[in-house]
Amino acid sequence: GALLALNKPPGLPVLGCPGDLSLDALLPTLRRRLGLAAELHVVKAPAREYSGLVLLSSCYHTTKKLQQFFTNARWRGQYPATYRAITMGVPAEVKGEICTGLRWQQQEDRAMVRGCQQAGGTGDTPGSAEGCALQVVPVPAPGRRSLARKDVKSTLTRYRVLSAVGGCALLQLQPR
């Protein structure tokens, strides 16, 4: 079957209620436009709040095998997602780890913020009012209480400098 990769915008849920705009609701139209005979299945996709790569398959068995691969990799502590970023500034070490906390924060400039949960959302994002202005911000040294209350999420990302020139760097990043 066919494998297809799409770039999902932030704010688009993978699943939705009948009649609501969601990735799942768009799949039949996408299948017809691509001329595929088989139904498309979501292998892997980012949550509603995030943009990113969506992997689709037109073969049910391929979908299940790939989903199992990602599940098994997570259980083994292996994370197959790898990203690239261009940074202003070059890390002191050629490779290392970034360990920090992340939390949602209300923002002053609503025009800059994307990915807020709208009314009737999934509950993954604080503040469900229409037009909310939230952004993810780093918390360098999160306390035990904020982690226990899940106000802050602890994160670990491995990085490697692939290239550096003119005070900028190309990094390979692997979140854990």
Radius of gyration using CA atoms only = 19 Å
Number of contiguous helices = 3
Name the helix and strand elements from N-terminus to C-terminus, one letter apiece. EHEEHEEEHEE
Strand residue percentage: 25-35%
Q: Classify the secondary structure makeup into a structural class.
A: alpha+beta
Beginning-to-end CA distance, first to last residue: 30 Å
Overall outline:
globular
Helix content: 10-25%
Average pLDDT level:
83
Sheet with the most strands, sense and barrel status: 5 strands, antiparallel
Question: Into how many domains do the coordinates divide?
Answer: 2
pLDDT under 50 segments (min length 5)? 110-130
Strand elements, count: 8
Spatially, the strands of the biggest sheet line up as 4-8-7-5-6
